[in-house]
Amino acid sequence: MQERSARQDLECDKISLERQNKDLKTRLASSEGLQKPSASFSQLESQNQLLQERLQAEEREKTVLQSTNRKLERRVKELSIQIDDERQHVNDQKDQLTLRVKALKRQVDEAEEEIERLDSLRKKAQRELEEQHEVNEQLQARIKSLEKDS
């Protein structure tokens, strides 16, 4: 934005200097008709030279600013491409992690189901063991009873 403003200022200055230069040349041409150059003619000539030098300096500055602007625009474009690449990389990683999380959740669900199944089998086996203990105790009591009777 500042470069654009500076560029516009330089263009305005250039136009103004060219106008002044034309005016000075017109004055110079009219004063050349005089036989003896006056002090004002020398002063105008000196002023013209200064304006020419100023114009050249501003044109050089304009060229430098344009070059700098082009370099900055290239750098912005490079950084924009880099940011887009990094954004895509992050999105790819996010997608991979999402898939990994889903797979892990599925594994957790399967493991929980297996734990429930095994717990159910354990409880069933525990009940059967307790029933066998009761049957065993009943049989032991009957054996003792039969041994006493005989």
TrEMBL record:
Pfam name, any one: Myosin_tail_1
Region feature (Disordered): 26-47
Listed GO CC annotations: bicellular tight junction; myosin complex
Keyword NAD annotated: no
Keywords: Cell junction, Coiled coil, Tight junction
Biased composition (Polar residues): 28-41
Domain Myosin tail: 2-146
Localization terms from the record: Cell junction, Tight junction
Main location: other
InterPro entries in the cross-refs: Myosin_tail (IPR002928)
Family assignment from sequence similarity: Belongs to the cingulin family.
Purpose of the protein: Probably plays a role in the formation and regulation of the tight junction (TJ) paracellular permeability barrier.
Protein's name according to its UniProt entry: Cingulin
Lineage: Eukaryota, Metazoa, Chordata, Craniata, Vertebrata
